[in-house]
What we know:
2 strands, alpha+beta, 19% helix, Alpha-Beta Plaits, 2 helices
Amino acid sequence: AxxxxxxxxxHCSDIAILGYHRKPPxxxxxxxxxxxEIPLAxxxxxxxxxxxxxxxxxxGKEVKSVDVKNERCMY
Length: 75
C-alpha cells in the first residue's frame, strides 16, 4: 500500500499505529508508479482527494502518477 495506515485497513498490519500524517503527502512522480499501484491508491482514498494524472518530468518524459487535492485530504 502507498499509505502508511492503508486508510483503515489496520487488520492487515501487525502494528496498531504505523504512521501519523500531519500534512498531505508529498509525491515523487518519477518513482510513484514503480512502488505503488495507482488505481488502488485512488480507489482507497476515503475523501476522493487522490486522482490519476499524467506528469511530465524535468527530462521531458511523461509518466503516470497521481494528483492530490490538498483541500480534500483529511490529513
